[in-house]
Amino acid sequence: MLLWCSCVAVVCCGCVEGRLSCGAALITIKHVVPRAILSEGGSAVSLSGTGFLNLNTLACRFSTKVVLASFETSTLICCIAPILNVGSVSLEVSNNGVDFSSSATAVEALPPVIVTGMFPPAGPASGHTLVNIYGSQFYDAGVPARCKFGEEMQSVAVLVNASHVRCESPPYAGVWAVDVAISFDNQTFIPTLQVFRYDPVAHLMRLSPSTGPQFGVTALTAVGTSFQNSGHSSCRFTASPGAKSKLSPTARWLSHSLLECMLPTLQIGRYMVQMSSNGIDFNPHALTFVVAPLPAVTSVSPSAGSCQGTTLVRIAGFHLSSTGSATCKFGDKLTPATIDASSEILCVSPPYRAGQVALEVSSNGQDFSSSNVLFIYSPSAFVLGLMPRSGPVDGNSCLNVTGVNFELSAAKASPKLSCMFDDSVVAASLVSSTMLQCCSPPHAEGSFPLRISTNGVDYTRSLVHFEYVRSPMIHRITP
């Protein structure tokens, strides 16, 4: 069926029986893209159908507003929507600008999109950051939404709901801040007034400590490069590929190479650790962190020492492990520790005031046992005199050794009160804080220093000597 217009029409299509006439084929509209547009105008609308003619009067009518159309093919045209009232708007097409189709086609005119925020505001230059854009009056136009980063880089967006859009940042060869825009009709991009910053890719190099207890309060320091001060830093702990991860409860940016994360509550085992500067993108290379039981101390030997420190203390207990950060704590003083072949911890006591202190151990230098095993500090002992000053090389001379600081508390704490004659050690008994008794062992003839120990480990520096002499021999009795 053909529709004919009067001869006064702007466009004439030919002459019929000597009369100048114009006409247009019947127009049908099959599809409109997008189905929703902004009421503020400017949206490009594509219409597919039949009967479109390449005439300069080709037009679209949005409700009562007529705009010229752009001819693409006989089955495809394009129109720029004018400013419209919010709501459903009828859309028809005319080849001559006068006679419009009656296809009952409609588009939805929507209020302007409002963007209120974006997270995260930054990501690595490698791209693939999941960017969330928030606002109101987001809409589904029937085509995939898109995000644009800068002038050219685009990515497909997901319309979560009317106030949330999600898209991935494309890779970017450089470090720069770019404007972000969104499009719901795949044609018109709406500025979000948000800026996305591309940062260098962060690399994790070392963890300190590399182990921690199951129920400790461990501050984990991540060492690496290109850490950003975004306020959204985080560390992620994963037991195995595909397993559910746990994030650090708090994280603190220290520098571009240091990040401090608090250890979450984890089960005993090995975990892969990754860090993030924006809380979304985690570094690709993970490091291992070991969660172990908290150490426990059962005994220490010796259990007493000098206030001057330097006592080599051997500690036995449970879950003692050497990670390079093993530490002893005497009261509130820390000292490095090592693990010997028998899995006992060895450490040297630091100087401390006289009295009892709790001796605890840690595998990572932060989280300590709470066994409350005591170590006693006493003033250093000094030998002032002894009686007798000499005895036979056969030994068994019982001596009274006098001095100061033969503390009863230290001596009772350690059953290893002893005397050292040259390099021979014998047991001693405590008489008072200024006297002890011991018997000389056999020794070669000569004068040798006498030293004492209240703990069996630390011996005094003494200027008092004991002289070994030959035993008298009786050759003859007269009369």
Describe the structure in your own words:
This protein has 5 domains: 2-110, Immunoglobulin-like; 114-199, Immunoglobulins (Immunoglobulin-like, Sandwich), CATH 2.60.40.10; 203-292, Immunoglobulins (Immunoglobulin-like, Sandwich), CATH 2.60.40.10; 296-378, Immunoglobulin-like; 382-469, Immunoglobulin-like. Helix content is 1%, strand content 53%. The chain is built from 1 helix and 44 strands. The strands form 7 sheets. An 8-stranded mixed beta sheet has the order 4-6-9-8-7-10-11-5, with no helix packed on it. It has an 8-stranded mixed beta sheet with strand order 12-14-17-16-15-18-19-13, with no helix packed on it. The longest helix is centred in the last third of the chain and has 6 residues, at 408-413.
Sum this structure up briefly.
The protein is mainly β and 479 residues long. It is 1% helix and 53% strand. A hairpin with a 2-residue loop joins strand 2 and strand 3.
